[in-house]
Structure prediction request, 719 residues.
Amino acid sequence: MTKFAVLQLSGCAGCEVSLLNANEWIDRYKLVYMPLVISAYDVPKVDILLVSGGVRTDEDLYNLRKAARNAGQVVAVGTCAISGGVANLGNRDEVRMLFLSQNERMHVPRLLPRSRPIDAIVSVDRYLPGCPPTSELFMAMLFQTPDFKPGKSICIECGRIKDKTVRPKHLYGFQKGKVEPGLCLINQGYLCVGSSTRGGCRAPCTRAGHPCVGCRGPSDAFIEKESTEWLASIQKVFEVMTDIPKEEISKSLISPQLALFLFQFSDYSGEGRPPRSKEKVL
Amino acid sequence: MPTFTFPISRIEGHAQVVIEVQRGKVISARFQATEMRGFSYFVQGTPAEQMPVIVPRICGVCSTAHHVCSVKTLEDIFGVTPPPLARKIRELLLLGQIIQNQATSLFIFTMPDRLGVESIFQVDEKERKLSESSGIALKSLQVRKAGSDLITLAGGQFIHPVKAIIGGVTSGILSEPASKMKEQIDAILPIACDLFDHYWELSITMGEKIGSWGDDEPAHYITAVNDECPNFDSDDICIQEPDGNHCERFSAHQLFDKLEMETTDYSYAGESSYKGQVLRANSLARINMTKKMGTPRADEYLARFRSAFGKPAHAIMLFDLARGIELVYALERSAELLTEKLDGAELDVPYQPCDGEGYGLVEAPRGPLIHHYLVEKGLIKKADFIIPTVHNMRAISRALIVAARRYVDEDSVNMELERAVGRVVRAFDPCIACATH
Prediction:
């Protein structure tokens, strides 16, 4: 029986909770290590090692290196392990100075200077982005289901209808005003980035009336490119679909606040790393 | 001087217990949170309206509580009152969280202690005991799933919800998916009750072996569920004296005047106290303070609990049984709510953003959760997250010392200590990702 382990570094356990939302794995694969649900101290030799969370403490660093050595395949799971996620917001210099100095402790693992994605430390065979990935995605990744075909972008999976005659004049931001059921959120003036975000999650957020915040990261068309190209494509979509002044869109998109917000999910080319090849990303 | 370090598994996040022994005497027992990400620092400078999407990521286990709490904080600043329909959907969201969390804590985190296994996912056909636990594993995941599905229905996203917005919710719940959800919950309720009955029985059978029925002193209890029946979308905080007779009630705004907050050099989590006294939050605090549950089966369990253990009850292992009563309540209560009208025009009210300071409060699975933001020019200037687990930190350390003294004497250390330490910590169901954020 295929053995797998889940190593949780500094993160929120959302990925683990999503994995537990599925049960198809129970009879097919043997889970041998996952401290959230199993009392075991060391990662044994496994076929598949799922790693969630970012490398934030010296303990994370140690555990990751040690576990990866014994793993047939390493899979980076969730946004934190792949691009730093929300915790990456703490990598800004002004923030780091503040919280590293105020949180020195004697008897606990030390905080590293910055949070790192796991492929900055060990080599990664596959990536499963999402904050967190859905349980369906988890199963498709674990079993490498051949008939699982994710949509090219969130728009393909969203189910909302684009209407050429509805052209908003101003940007609403993320959540203001009434959400019209069934109509594309961009037609309603919301800053939805689903057009260039990777599909596969079945678009739960936009279906519920909240703009896509891009947690699955860039779609195949952009994943091997600089994040500026991703932003440029979002801008283009708004120029084509709305009458929002060009300056207003670009101001919103490049404003430090929005950049900050999208950055948590989109920093696929940070730290001078080579881009992840799309073949490795589900 | 020997020091014992026990990493703690089957809890949320990274933590360890360190026990120092000198000449056969337990000198100290510390519960240490060993991770940190720095949310209160790095949200500074973000536009206030993005907070409800960012802060659920503090914790994937308690995300709905952070989501709703964040929205309530901003509503406090902007002076908005959400319509009743929106509050109903938020209550469902919080109930989904209770179902998911209590099922996880009971059947995945602490059931193995009662079965004498490392995990309910250990499947070994040769051993009867373990294959019994495999049946429990599938059933437990089914019960959890009812909670997760309810969160998805009421919250949009399945882990980090998006549906609560300032002034209301983005969308309602149509009657067809609502009645499907109700059917699922109706089918799950007997399974959950069976598992809980089994759990209760096993807990009693373990009796003194658990080592914590009679240990530890009475304590003050803190909760934000202080109505006739539990309502997790709460308005006030309540602290109950150890005798159960006197309560002090106050609003989230007064929190920093009422509680002492401290940091230590051995943990990334802080700890709180009330007039210098040990506090306890979480399920037992709620069960000790509520008049009744308000749903039929949960009230049966509550009556059984009270006749066996009294009111207020203080034994540590009763936190676990209290969680089971709440699981049953949350299933029954959400089934009730799902028959009501959950869609309509009155989903949200308009608001005008403004600068200012505000507090939000909900009762999370682990106790009262408070957010406090200062907004300047539309951006977050300061953010505090007062996490329920922090109220339990001193109680956990105190209980650990009691447990440790039981297993350490001048001649030897009984290594049952390791299991006892795990059981004590798990009874409090601490959440380390939240506590350190």
